[in-house]
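Exam revision sheet. Question 4 asks you to relate a sequence to its structure. Input first:
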Amino acid sequence: MARSVKKGPYVDPHLVKKVQEQVKTKGKKVIKTWSRRSTILPEMVGLTFAVHNGKKFLPVFVTENMVGHKLGEFAPTRTFHGHSGDRKAAAGGTPTAAPAAPKPATPAPAAPPAK
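Answer key, structure tokens:
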């Protein structure tokens, strides 16, 4: 469920302080954070955050389309390795049907006579 509109978006206070410092100094330093729950504000556009995914920090460059979303949405916590059935099919398992017999070759149509 979404946060109440009257409460406003939630951003960790320590993160707001770091963002204001970067904006004031116009720095391009990466802001390291564990705060995946913080909402992206318009002031954060153009900054790069290193968001922790539980194992390592993933760089997230904030664009205008990300405003209103959470930082954690852009740092996935799980690695998808594919479905096991896809690997078996790609490895050339047992064929499901016998190969069809080749069709006999048909002669090419004759070209019209040249004038």
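Marking note for examiners. The chain has a mean pLDDT of 87.
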